[in-house]
Design a protein that fits this description.
Structural class of chain A: alpha/beta
Structural class of chain B: mainly alpha
Order of helices and strands of chain B: HEHHH
Shape of chain A: globular
Number of strands of chain A: 7
Strand content of chain B: 5-15%
Oligomer: heterodimer
Largest sheet of chain A: 5 strands, mixed
Number of strands of chain B: 1
Strand content of chain A: 15-25%
Largest interface: A-B, 67 and 43 residues
Number of helices of chain A: 8
Radius of gyration of chain B: 23 Å
Radius of gyration of chain A: 19 Å
Largest sheet of chain B: none
């Protein structure tokens, strides 16, 4: 009896990690993969401050950039390490453009300002913010410390796998894997700005941010949705 | 049995799936005129030695600051929207 129960628990655990239809290939899928690494100033990862410290803001007087702007240096050095699994050449090209758009948007003042000024219920805050202020959320994005690879390396580390399903799910991920799954039903028709927004949304889950599973009124104000929209919206300028 | 149920709940919560449903807010359709105008601006900046913002944001921003006043009106509007002085 005990043995059967143990087997049942084990099976349920495996199914919880993998979406139906996915092979239980773990976190490092076999097959062709392309790694797209980009981080300006590759000598060493940019130093990053502790979460409890407030980042430079648009109203800050310090100029850590030397550019006459108060944009944090980490916003300009933000890098990407995106591994694409089994992409065709045209899919790779499209995703490369989306990844570049992410970097371009993070390097803008407007992106910082939109995060710092994001408002829900009349207060500058996000829904499901894990108790963090807007400034701390912005800093956590620049730190880029994924839950499964927790070093604050200022680099978006993520893998991407494509799949097709005829439903309304654009993409998904889970807390136990380092990659995201992107539905080609939407990927194929999306602009690169929308792909960038979707990538950022899923990556924000990797940082530990969540949102309501159902389409509640407050869900668009969660970190993954709201910041994902910002990337898509501002990304339009870089298409 | 109670322990098993608790264990199941724990594993389920720990491996929570996060999906994103289709939302028109993500599905931005950009007009060709908008794309052409933006591309022309970034080409203009590239010609002026600013390079690509994805390749070096610091250099790009410094360059934009230096050449901002010489840019065409549309391009000035775009960079003013994205990069503060």
């Amino acid at each position: 009896m005990k043995k059967n129960l143990f087997s049942l628990v084990l099976l349920l655990f495996i199914f919880a990690c993998e979406k139906p239809g996915e092979s239980a290939s773990g976190d490092d899928p076999e097959g062709g993969s392309t790694s797209l690494s980009s981080h300006p100033g590759t000598e060493s990862p940019a130093p990053s401050s502790d979460d409890s410290e407030a980042p430079a803001t648009s109203t800050g007087s310090g100029d850590s950039t030397g550019t006459g702007s108060s944009l944090p240096a980490l916003a300009m050095s933000f890098g990407t390490n995106v591994t694409l699994y089994d992409f065709t050449q045209s899919q790779t090209d499209k995703y490369n453009e989306a990844v570049a758009i992410v970097k371009k948007v993070v390097g803008t003042d407007e992106f910082r300002d939109r995060i710092l000024n994001h408002t829900y219920n009349g207060i500058k805050q996000f829904v499901d913010n894990r108790g963090l202020t807007n400034a701390q959320i912005y800093q956590s994005i620049l730190d880029a410390a994924e839950k499964l690879t927790p070093a604050k390396n200022n680099i978006m580390d993520v893998g991407v796998k494509l799949y097709y399903e005829a439903n309304n799910v654009v993409g998904w991920t889970s807390t136990s894997i380092t990659y995201i799954n992107v539905n080609t039903k939407y990927f194929d028709s999306y602009t690169t700005a929308s792909v960038a927004g979707n990538l950022f949304h899923e990556w924000l889950h990797k940082l530990g941010y969540g949102h309501d599973a159902s389409a509640t009124a407050s869900r668009p104000y969660s970190v993954p949705y709201a910041v994902g929209y910002m990337i898509s919206n501002l990304g339009r300028n870089f298409i | 049995m109670k322990n098993i149920i608790l264990l199941l709940v724990f594993f389920w919560a720990f491996n929570a799936l996060s999906s994103i449903e289709y939302d028109p807010k993500f599905d931005y359709q950009v007009t060709q005129a908008e794309v052409d105008s933006n591309r022309a601006c970034f080409r203009e900046l590239e010609t002026l030695g600013c390079g690509d913002p994805a390749d070096g944001a610091k250099h790009f921003r410094e360059c934009v600051r230096d050449v901002r006043d010489t840019l065409t009106e549309n391009c000035q509007k775009l960079v003013s929207k994205l990069y503060k002085r």
